[in-house]
Amino acid sequence: MSDPVDIMLVTSCRKGRVDPEIYDLIAFGRRLQALGAGPMGVWILGEDVNEAAREIAHGTGVPVTGLQDGELANYVNEAFGAMSAREIESVDPTYVCVAHTSRGWEWAPALAARIDAGCICAVDGLVETRGRLCFQRDVYGGKAKGLYTSSATTTVITVQPGAFKFEPAAHSIAPNAVTLKNTPCTVKRTRYLGLKQGVSDTSRITEAPIIVAVGNGIGDFENMALIHRLAGSLPGAAVAGTRIVCDRGWLGYNGQVGVTGASVSPDLYLACGISGASQHVTGMRGSGFVIAINTDPHAPMFNEADICIVENVIHFIPLLEDACARLAGNAEQDFIDLKTLRR
Amino acid sequence: MKILVCVKQVPHIEGVAVKQDNNKMATLEAFGPPRINRFDEFAVEQAVRFKETLTGVHVDVITVGPEPAAQVLKRALGMGADSGIHLLTSTDADPGPEAVSAWIAQFAGPRGYELILCGSMSEDCMTGQVGPMTAALLNLPYATQVMEIQPDRNLAGVSVEREIEGGAREMVFIRLPALLALQPGINRPRYPSLSNLLRANKQGLEIIPTQTLAQGKVNIRRSGFVLPAHERASQLITGSAVEKAAQTAEIMKAKGLI
């Protein structure tokens, strides 16, 4: 009999595949252990989880429990909540960790309320202050991080994907045990109907070397012309935007950058009037060089930028367009001069 | 059909200034008028649309907060909701999702709502927990990040599309009564109408002090704020606007970007 599990990591398995976010959860679990938490274990929910469970147990050395039932072939919050609640009751862990995805964020808080546990969502940092474990998460659109403590016997935590980096062991590790349970699960009030693909082709922005991205700071639909004109003057540039700009109908959803839109990695990301909430920033972190323009000096977008300009985009963009044109003009001039010289 | 919409008053986020204090912690100061949580406006709009398209719909709006929070109820009534319920807190401090969901569930439980709507999260605390936690406490089926709702003909359930990563959508059928947390963009929230606002001012609100409700256990507490880390150089360009533009263009050229 192994030590009782203190950290329960819950993941799912669709069509036999391992959800890569489990590795972030394991990295998070290791940080908890470094701060005094006990042993961890992975719980994987799905229709047929054998292969995926072994992959995790062999790759990480963490023991894995597989919960299998036909009802778990697709994600339904009712089923995930019921299955996890049953396991938590017998395992009695201090922490239950779930990836902060559209699914985890849906079922984990309900699970917590159901079992009278604490719940902290979208955790992206862990610090110990005055002997207390503090869970850090974005508040106020990312302008600040809130530090949260829990006094619950069990705390459910959703962990931001990418916030904790998984380091594969340098030496070979002993594979850990896999336990498979076929646990019947009844879903009564919610029926899964299927998956619908996302918005149309986003290649216009995913393949552009330069993105002029626009946020709520643009203020009005009429000002979008400024953005389009600037993009038109920069070779290969495409216009993209935040969720709110798309919601307002100022830009099509195929131009949306962020969690529910496209992930982009251009050479240059020019963020115009974007506050910089994590839902947006997640989609542009891979960019080469980032310039941010915003009137609000506290805009979190500035933390994600190489160059920060505190200006109103509406006034600044025409100035930037002029300045770029002047430089580009000079370049052309140099080129002509060189040719004249050669002659 | 009885619908309950949960709304929250939040500070003007763009006007929130964050300062580092001398203890590695940060303090927040809000400038500008508080407003209705942007995400919740979509829930009010959705409820009002149901009222306009289905027969016999009554829309209640509920908020938890100190006295000034009544403003968001007035706004929702101005948009077309029928009546407002204010769970009045005695302090300005945010009670957190555990207390808020427990109070809303206590209120809603005996009133037999067929549908409870809320926004997917608040702009200030950003927990997104009140919806799912309220659903669990009321033992209701639920969905979050909802982008499409189609009630079936006899109103026994709703077909729902919930938005997931990359903009794909999960389609589920949920039996009523249920709770749905809506994703922004599901509709275009209307402005309050003058006639509705006048009615709202006249009709008053149902006010329930939260002290009169059962106080559940609060497990999670916020101990403070810190400043977010810089992920990149975050070099501030200074000078006049024209100088800043020239400098920026120079940097873009030096980097081979133009």
Number of strands of chain A: 16
Going by CATH, the homologous superfamily of chain B would be: HUPs
The helix fraction of chain B, in percent, is 25-40%
Query: What's the average pLDDT of chain A?
Result: 92
Largest interface summary: A-B, 103 and 86 residues
Task: Report the count of strand segments of chain B.
Answer: 15
Distance between the termini of chain B: 59 Å
Tell me what portion of residues of chain B adopts beta-strand conformation: 25-35%
The helix content of chain A is 25-40%
Which architecture of the largest domain in chain A does the CATH hierarchy give at level 2?
3-Layer(aba) Sandwich
User: What value does the average pLDDT of chain B take?
Assistant: 96
Key phrases:
heterodimer; A: 343 residues; alpha/beta; Rossmann fold; 2 domains; five-stranded parallel sheet; 16 strands; 31% helix; elongated; disordered C terminus; B: 258 residues; nine-stranded mixed sheet; two-stranded antiparallel sheet; 6 helices; 15 strands; 28% helix
How is this structure best described in words?
- The complex is a heterodimer of chains A (343) and B (258).
- Chain A has 2 domains: 7-182, Rossmann fold; 203-340, TPP-binding domain (Rossmann fold).
- Helix content of chain A is 31%, strand content 27%.
- Chain A has helices at 21-34, 50-60, 77-91, 104-115, 203-206, 224-233, 243-247, 278-281, 313-342; strands at 7-14, 17-18, 40-46, 64-68, 95-99, 118-129, 132-139, 144-150, 155-159, 178-182, 190-196, 210-214, 237-241, 268-272, 289-293, 307-309.
- In chain A, strands 1, 2, 3, 4, 5, 6, 7, 8, 9 and 10 form a 10-stranded mixed beta sheet that branches.
- In chain A, strand 12 (210-214), helix 6 and strand 13 form a beta-alpha-beta unit.
- The longest helix of chain A has 30 residues, at 313-342.
- Chain A is elongated.
- Chain B is an alpha/beta fold.
- Chain B has a single domain (2-212), classed as Rossmann fold, CATH 3.40.50.620.
- Helices cover 28% and strands 31% of the residues of chain B.
- In chain B, strand 9 (142-151) and strand 10 form a beta hairpin.
- In chain B, helix 2 crosses helix 5 (194-203) and helix 3 (96-108) packs across helix 4.
- Chain B is globular.
- At the A-B interface, helix 3, helix 4, strand 6, strand 7 and strand 8 of A face strand 3, helix 3, helix 4, strand 9 and strand 10 of B.
- Strand 8 (144-150) of chain A pairs antiparallel with strand 14 of chain B.
